């Protein structure tokens, strides 16, 4: 068993391997993957393909195949969420809300391909879990030193959107303002990319988020409202 951490994409990325004989080279390869993702998708690097796309210096048809896939998926999710997930919500091209989860999903597949069977990959607190027997704490949105729930999980992705990590970074694309009726949204499901996008969209929806998450096929949600009421979908684990 081993855990390794690296600061990539402006956040701590943790790979926690619980297999009896972990493969250090596999973990190093996963971190190399995240470094490539950062170089390609970072909105802070002037030479990244995303920055060049945003400035009009690169056409989408000439971009890397992974960039084209991410941009296509962003458009699908924008339509699916009624515009609440929008890679242009900030006024410039920023697909980070999908890229983080997508890159973790891909890293998990890379690790699985090396034979690892029980591990977790976490990026900025959102994680993809492989194997059973994990206990995951969801940070309380009003108290950084406490947890809102401890979940018994296995083989699942966990994404939380809230204002505590980076302030009011999630805006309602329709109004340009942060929601005030909700403190956090946690989504569980098979893919972190989709779970992360859904959590962002549901948080941006504010009071309308819980009703929307209750209709998501294959994904479950826990929403903490501004009055600290906790709303969960039918298949969400007991909290």
Could you explain the architecture of this structure?
The protein is α+β, with helices and mostly antiparallel strands and 239 residues long. It has a single domain, classed as T-fold. Helix content is 33%, strand content 28%. An eight-stranded antiparallel β-sheet has the order 1-2-3-4-7-8-9-10. The chain has a two-stranded antiparallel ribbon with strand order 5-6. Helix 1 (24-41) runs antiparallel to helix 4 (96-113) and helix 4 (96-113) packs antiparallel against helix 5 (192-205). The longest helix is centred in the first third of the chain and has 18 residues, at 24-41. The protein starts with a strand and ends in a 7-residue tail after the last strand. The model has no long low-confidence stretch (mean pLDDT 93).
CATH topology, what is it called? Answer: T-fold
Radius of gyration: 17 Å
- Total domains: 1
Number of helices: 6
Provide the low-confidence segments as ranges: none
Helix content: 25-40%
What structural class results from the helix and strand content? alpha+beta
Shape: globular
How many strand units? 10
Judging by the overall fold, what is the CATH architecture? Roll
- Succession of helices and strands: EEHHHHEEEEEEHHEE
Mean pLDDT: 93
* Widest β-sheet, arrangement of strands: 1-2-3-4-7-8-9-10
Q: How can the largest sheet be summarized?
A: 8 strands, antiparallel
CATH class: Alpha Beta
Q: CATH homologous superfamily? A: ApbE-like domains
Separation of the first and last Cα atoms: 28 Å
Residue share in β-strands: 25-35%
